[in-house]
Design a protein that fits this description.
By secondary structure, the protein is mainly alpha-helical. It has a single domain (3-163), classed as Arp2/3 complex 21 kDa subunit ARPC3 (Orthogonal Bundle). Helix content is 71%, strand content 0%. The chain has seven helices and no strands. The longest helix has 26 residues, at 138-163. The protein is globular. It comes from Bizionia myxarmorum.
Length: 167
C-alpha cells in the first residue's frame, strides 16, 4: 500500500468517526447540523478509477447510516454527489479538469468555494428530501438544506485551510 492509499484510508476513518461521534450530536436551532464527511468525496483524487470512487463514496455514506441509524439517506446522498462530481468539476475548473491536472491545494480559492457550494447544497438537498420525504414539508427541506449547507461549507473550507500542506 502506498502513502496516498494510507492517507485516504486514514481520512476516511477520521471523517467517519468525527461525523458519527461528534458532528451528528450538533443540532443548532433544530436545523443546523454539519456533515463534514462530504469533504472526503469532494477532495478525492480525480484520476482514480470511477467505479472504485463510487463504491468508496457509497461505503462512506453507508457507514454514516449504520452508525446514525438513518436508513440509507447518507449513502444515497453521498453516491449522488460522487456520481455528478465530474460534471461539477468540469463546470468549476474547465480545462484543468479535462487534462486531469487538478490539485485541490493549488486551485483558485474562488473556484474551490463554488465547487464546494454546488456539491454540498446538492448533497444536503438529497439528504433532507429523502429524510423528510414529504412534499408538503418542502419549506422545511429547503430550510434545513440552506442552514446546514452554510455550516458545512464553512467547516469544509476551514478544514482545507487548516490542514493544507504548505509547499
Amino acid at each position: 500500500m502506498n502513502n496516498t492509499a494510507i492517507s485516504f484510508s486514514v481520512q476516511f476513518i477520521v471523517l467517519m468517526l468525527a461525523q458519527v461521534l461528534v458532528l451528528n450530536h450538533i443540532n443548532f436551532l433544530g436545523h443546523i447540523n454539519p456533515y463534514l464527511y462530504v469533504l472526503f468525496i469532494l477532495l478525492f483524487p480525480i484520476n482514480n478509477n470511477r467505479l472504485v470512487f463510487l463504491l468508496i463514496s457509497f461505503a462512506l455514506g453507508l457507514g454514516i447510516d449504520i452508525f446514525s441509524d438513518s436508513g440509507g439517506v447518507h449513502a444515497a446522498a453521498a453516491l449522488s454527489i460522487a456520481f455528478i462530481r465530474p460534471v461539477v468539476l468540469k463546470f468549476c475548473f474547465g480545462s484543468v479538469y479535462e487534462h486531469q491536472t487538478i490539485k485541490f491545494k493549488n486551485v483558485d480559492f474562488g473556484a474551490k468555494v463554488i465547487y464546494f457550494i454546488i456539491l454540498i447544497v446538492i448533497h444536503h438537498f438529497i439528504l433532507f428530501a429523502l429524510e423528510i420525504f414529504n412534499l408538503r414539508d418542502i419549506i422545511l427541506v429547503l430550510q434545513k438544506t440552506l442552514f446546514s449547507s452554510i455550516f458545512t461549507i464553512i467547516l469544509c473550507l476551514m478544514a482545507t485551510i487548516i490542514f493544507s500542506r504548505k509547499t
